[in-house]
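Below is the record:
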Amino acid sequence: MTGSAFITAKEIADELGMSMAYAYKVVRTLNAELKQQGYSVIRGKVSRKYFEKKYYYSDGGDE
């Protein structure tokens, strides 16, 4: 992973082993959720922190 604040659909596809089409769907879904919460979004990218929160289990502690 890079140190960027945003993750692209290509990175999501590679990381989760899914097609680009489905990765774009993930980006659109997560961005819609963020927009509904009042955040500004960037088309084709999503917050890396939000992506990790939604797709990786975390007990809230340090690993």
